[in-house]
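In this supplementary section we document a worked example of the pipeline. Step one takes a protein sequence of length 717 as its only input; no multiple sequence alignment statistics are reported here. Step two produces a three-dimensional model, which step three serialises into structure tokens for compact storage. The input and output of this example are shown verbatim.
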Amino acid sequence: LSIVRCCLFYTFNDLSGSVSLAWVGDGTGVILALTTFQVPFFMIRLGQSKLYRSENYGKSFQDVTNLINNTFIRSEFGIAIGPENSGKVILTGDVSGGHGSRIFVSDDFGKSFTHRDLPFTPLMQITYNPDDSKVLVVLSNNNEMWLSEDFGSNWKKVQDTVCLVKWGRKNTIFFSASLNGSCSDRGMLELRRTTDYGKTIKTVANKIYSFGLGGRFLFASVMTGKGTLRMIHVSVDQGETWNMAQLPPVGHEQFYSILAANDEMVFMHVDEPGDTGFGTIYVSDDRGTVYSKSLERHLYTTTGGDTDFTNVTSLRGVFITSVLAEGDSVQSVVSFDQGGEWVPLRKPANSKCDATAKDPEKCSLHLHAAYSTSMRLNVPMLPLSEPNAVGLILAHGSVGDAISVMRPDVYVSDDGGYTWIKALDGPHHYAILDSGGLLVAVEHSPTQPVNRIKFSTDEGQCWGVYNFTDDPIYFTGLASEPGARSMNVSIWGYRDSLLSQYWISITIDFRDLLTRDCEDRDYVQWLAHSDDISDPNDGCMLGYKEKFLRLRKDSVCWNGRDYEVNTQPTPCPCTLDDFLCDFGYYRQENSSECVEQPDLKGKVLEFCLHGKEEQLQTSGYRKIPGDKCEGGRMPERKEIDLSKRCVSDLLCCIQSSKSVSIVITIIIVMFLVHRYSVLQQHVEDNAAEGIDDPLETNHTQNGKIEFHDDSDEDLLE
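The serialised model returned by step three reads:
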């Protein structure tokens, strides 16, 4: 296969040390490139920024630095792109010697910029209201919360001593505030809410340590009043009422972290006491209050550190992460059922255990993720999957009895992680294009210049090679439009001259390779989660089967930007595997049946929900959130309202600062400890695999856990 007219070079007359890229809008072809050069000089920074703009997916750029008046842009705040296709852009400038700062705003996809002087210095990147992009909120460097309702033209101070701020839903802002003027006094903060941009503010919880958002759930870690212990409280009504989550309390050296969440359930990591580097994953019911143990010894280094937890977005219900095994070796495990069971990754066919394997019989695939990059292993990219590239996963890994520190290879799965092939020798940068119809990769070679890009049209089985230049460049990264629908990929790097280095961007348009549009005959039907075709329930996951139309591996054609995933869901009859164990029940070893906890037999099960005491009548089962099974076995359960009030003494009745109201918070009356038995693979069986909508996760490109613009989750320290 040959590519013609593909490569367009752009040489930046620029000596800057770093470059930031941002795509503005979906399918617009607009890219902004911000280069930054800075040096520390005594107590101040001296720096220079240049701004470039492309309208053709990076094939050419125009120097538009004059639009920002040659101002030094603070690269740590990046390029703030507005939600959806608003075309809004914010750049935060560094103004030396002043008490405020300056931003440059654009509402026309970066064609023009207007500068706005700020009456404060930002502490963080300015954040957009997800539902109204002209409304902005930010914290200043002295912890004041500022808000603008006109895209930065005018600002008003909403509150002093704000420690953390997050956008909720429907114009709601949540923030934690200190009563004594210091954010270091953790555990004594107030959680406040405004739904009218600060005109009225309501305190919804106090004595909080931190808070986070996940799906429709609002979480607060709250001091228990017993030493330094704190517990998670959860609200599904914007903080009006609270339930205590059925999770273990943590001490001051531990943390909670929301790994993933949507409107129906939550994955929560609870750190173990001591500096162990691991904890336990729990999954919630649909109320966010009852939690089942999912995975023990889950690798998660110190607070704000690194975890390998990965949501495989290309197939429903699949998650991959790492455990710290006995002997402190790191091993990869996968769950295909939303955290119900975790198993090792299957060894690729015809592969051999690496030389580090102590036991050649216990050999499986282990994937590198954020922990490996934090340990500075030779891993240039995290695992990659895309919702519109069904079943595809690309990742670095090794085959053995644990993750190896030796040079990794690139592995590809085309069925959501059930089976794998070794696709490329050695570490690579890779990208998914054309909804999975095309994979591209460039060898990771920090010390040697490169001039070749590899490409595959059959999901990684065979690779072609294209020489994109006769004059190799020092490669720094691949850049393709988010969403994996584009046919363009840009290779970024630099060349050395006698006196300096300068940036090079080479954009390849693979539309010249895939010249034919895909037709119906190019697609084949595929049953997801199929591992036993003789079983009538083969493919059943969370109560239904899904058949997809997928591109044939031998079809060399273009899916196109408008390609949509075609799926045919079919409900399955209900079995006990479609249910969680209810309050007071647990699953015995190797059994699907839920049995009563011995210490609770014959006792009336009462619990507190929404401020009222309720009695539970149950046969021991509760439907998994998001499960769509029909008919079959349907255990009965009902809740009887006892018409008694129940309130928590942990989150006491409180008043708002600007509008008077009473908030009654809730505590579960009887803390019911679920017990779970160990299966053969030493993973916990709780059948808590339960949602339909894609889960959002809180991983950034470098794998760190932090809040960012397309994720509502956070570390609850």
